[in-house]
Fold these 4 entries.
Entry 1:
Amino acid sequence: MGSSHYAQYGNTMLQRMYCENCRSWTLVIESKKQCCGNICTEESKFTKVIVPPQGNRIRLSRKVREMIKKEQDYKCYYCENVFGYYYSRGWKVYKSTIHFDHIVPFYLSCNNKKDNIVATCNLCNSIKGPKTFKNIEDLREYIQSVKQRKDILVMR
């Protein structure tokens, strides 16, 4: 089974995967690999930006940022830890910081409205990166698996 994701070219998204037979990346159109015509049954769970669309971000006002944090009870939207928690990786200990992230990524929607932005911890936001997921459960599962794989421990 190859690695599969949705590739974004500007505002167009196409399924893309690594074909083990052809040893190259290929697009998947109507469940067929374009390199060799073999059927693809693998479902993509995230998006990778190949060419970003054009658009401008704006910084949220302090009032809106505070409102978002308060609505989330000062917890990360992804891992649900209270902001300012400590975590370790290897022998180093870090304190989490607050980041603001677009639910539907800005590069897909160009939407800076409050209802599209959540407060996250820096760790979850950096793990998520520019990927998109079908639902919050898939995203949380992905973040947890990366934390486990990289031996990141949250200190409670």
Entry 2:
Amino acid sequence: MLTFLSMVFLIYGAMHFYALGKVWLAFPHTLALTSVLLFCGIVMTFSPLIVWQFERQNWHNVTVISSWVSYIWMGFLFLFCSIALIFDLGHTLSTLLGFEWPMNASTVLVTVGLLALAILGYGFVEARQMHVEKIKISTPKLSPAVGRVTIAQISDLHLGVMLGDEFLDRVIARLREIRPDSVHADAVAAHVHRQVRGEVRNGGLHRAIDRLTRIAPQSFDRMHVDDRTVVMLDHRSDERAGSAPDPCGPSRSGRRRDDQ
């Protein structure tokens, strides 16, 4: 684990050195600028650890603010470095071919920064959208008397300090429209499992599970939680042959699966 973390922070630190080096090249080289860039680079490199410590101390408001700053910066930095490398490749190729590169360091910095911001903004909006994929499966395992069974698979919610009750309300409202007989929520299971062991203190995901049990048209009377899945079944599940099928495949926030 120590070796893995060392490599992660070595790569993350190198990305900061590369990106902040672009800033240093675009401005007059002063001691004040160098000091500020070094300080920001060190703090932001280790910001995930700082956020983790805040969460462990149960400083909720500080954790929320630092999480937004740290992880939005992480996304921006990745995009900035990726785009900047393309520009550097173009600069290198133009030099090798004897062409004059039309952009100076300041122009490159502004252009790359704006492109990274635009892509980050698109990704931020897209990540908060919900997509429902419907899959119909015919199976002889269900009795004709049971009829159609609707299973909702929720995935990739990333509930936590950055996405909380407001986003969960939207997911629940969408699930109420689907009216599933069974809800499988593997995306929140890891967090729920930690809460069951008492490692997460704010209780937000406990409330999420309590609210998810109110989605189906008939009340759920059974819930299973383990390291991977949270499965809620209504009382009709005992009448069906075998256990509920395991929904598979990725989805953004909801997957509806009809077994006929």
Entry 3:
Amino acid sequence: MLDDKIKYYEEDTWKRYFNNDLANLYASVEGFIGLREEIKAHLEGKLVNSIINEKSFYRSVFFGGLQGKEDEPFVDNALARFYWEVLGVGLDRDGVSTIISRMKDGSTLESAAAGVSCSVVSTNVVSRLSELFSKLQAIFKMLSGVVEKPSPKKVEVKDENFGLEALKSVLDAGKAILPMYNPASFFVNSLYSIPYFYAKEAYPKLFEESTMALLKKYGLQLTDLLEPDIPDEKVREERKIIGWVDDSVGVLIREIILDVYSLFTMDAIPSFFNVEDEFNKYVKSCIDQLRASIVKDLFSDVISKIECVDYTQNLDDKERCKLSSDLRFRYSDNYGKSEYRQGVIKGGEVGIGSGHDFEKKDYKMSYSEFIAFLAPQMLLGLAYIRPTAKDRFSWLCMMGWL
């Protein structure tokens, strides 16, 4: 029972989560961003030789791994490549070409670098961490008076490893909040959207008054998302979809988790750190649990129809979590942004695939069977149903594991 592993009903769990786990990530990310701003202010536009004369270790930052080929100037694990691709600090293409050309004519590295300036550009990693940090800031602002805003982790620029150390701190803190390692993160991720009856079974104390009050204190507010259009109030209540309120702490934590997953496969990071694709590692750890939770023959109609709709490899439109080749996400095309592809509820049925109205939908099936099939994946954070309008929804689930 998850209640024994995830003590979501105890305040110590959330004190520890926000004051330690999430605070550590906040401090590491702010430290990284602060470091880059410091480096940008100090180095941007400054002559490379002048920088190296001040601090010799910058020679490795700018030229570490230089092999002198114009089509491939740096080796794969070149330190200079790390600083350029990850921090966006170093020599731009023109600067590198100029230096390589001069060296071919017999110049030493120092003379070849004469007149060449340091560039600072944005990178995918910097952009992702900036987005992540804005979400962390929003959470701690929402929880002002409940938890204290962390201070940034200071990174000392003392040798050529300063950038590696700053990013390693982010990766370590990020990994520590992923659902596979952090029970509180698993809990939050599992309630992005989920059938009420399944949440009640997974978390028996969830709907107790004291638990709901505790979660609300920490910005974790559940709401009704969707329900079947049927007259039986009791059945409607049991089979409704619940989830975190839009833009709430719960939704922001899920967003942060997806951001962190993406870091482990981004650009040059796997070349410099002993990291794994944490998203697919988590997915693989869930396969046996999913197979044990579903009797395939009972859902043959739902499965066959879901398998007919559009698929993608990515969990969201930012391409943050990409499945390995043997698995697919089936979904409302374009992540539900097009009304024509959204799911539609009518009575006790849902329609998916193409078609604006329920009657015109390609595939129709029982609402109860549809949500029952998705429920185990929702608990694991690998499927969702979120409303786009009354009786309309975007949806996604993982296939290929049956």
Entry 4:
Amino acid sequence: MTPSPATTEIGNRVRWVIILALLYCACLVTLGPTVQFSQWYIGPDNNQAAAEAEAWLDGRLTLPGRGGDTALYNGQVYNIFPPLLTVICFVYYGATSWLNDGMPLVFFTPLYVLIVAAPIPLLAYYAFRRSGADTHWAAVLAFYAIAGTCLWPVAGMLGGNAAMVGDNRAAWIYSIQHILAQTGLAIILIDLLGRRRMWLAGLGLLIATWSRQTCFLYCLPILWIAWNQPQRRRALILAAIPVAITIALPGGLNWAKFGNPLETGYRHIFDVDNPNRRIVLGADGDVHLFGLGHVPGHAKEMFLVPPQVFTTHQGLRITGWGPRTALWYGSPLFLFTLIDARRWWRDSVRRVLMLATIPVIFVGLMWHGPIEGSSGYYRYTLDYSLIWMAAITPWTTGPTRRWIVLACLAWSVFYFYSISGNP
């Protein structure tokens, strides 16, 4: 007897729920002991964005004091990071203050984890479904994107590893930025590889850019794809509106703080009393945050430098020779972006997405160094790793390739588990 369409639909939904539940369980079981979500804590005392949210509630932009990377400009202290986390904290603190005046401005940990980290498995799963993976394989690739990349140790900086590097890392804003950006990048992929509503890709761009500024370069494939839609004018309008909003809020904040919409204030971290000022000082005595001279060294670290493998009384251990290690060693799956280059090049959407990662990578390579928080990995690879995985997804599903991908996954999980104790 052939089941009715309604019965088949119910069965598919039940299977989908079970697969997602297993994906979340796998992430919790694998990452939980080192990431320790229950220890995630954020408040104005340990995070610049949370302190700025408190300042917004008081009707000001200035912070009460310097903590972490903050800008000292005209005798005032400002947050210099993109605004997404500030907006999230501002909404939460405003709501809790309205409901219970006098309540401490501390994010309720389960809700904090739910907003920052919980969307990633679901959205990554949908991104790989749109990329061409079947129901089960999309869950495998989503697990790889979380446990088989440096997203694992980066998230660990907020929980288990925080105690190893000082309490100031318990809400290390750089880690939170990378994690939030994954949500935005996944939404971009879901839309551009799916129905191409364009406004949804624009929303993903906003989330990613308000977390990591370099992700704004993904507006290029969004606008290019909108230009090539059958209803070009409508698609461009739907894409341009969120792109404009993405620019407007950070630009307005920059203008209000520093008098220039293009001035993020990062250079003002390095005032004369900052011991790291020498890192960014040029021959002219001025602060230079970007430079072509940084490219060779950073490129070597991102793509060539091997990890250090050694044994202790606890067994095999892996770490970096220096602060960074090339992405191929921890995530060998990315080698397929080179092996399958001709294949993804023939797909116009995948091609333009992959091409957009080139300026994203290059801007990161031009950034001054050293790159903190990257022992055994290079955290800037998170700005494009999800794009690369989506680009090669259709060619990971063959009988031979599946076993190769599973072997890569096993190695990657072992690798990032091994370095998870290294801040």
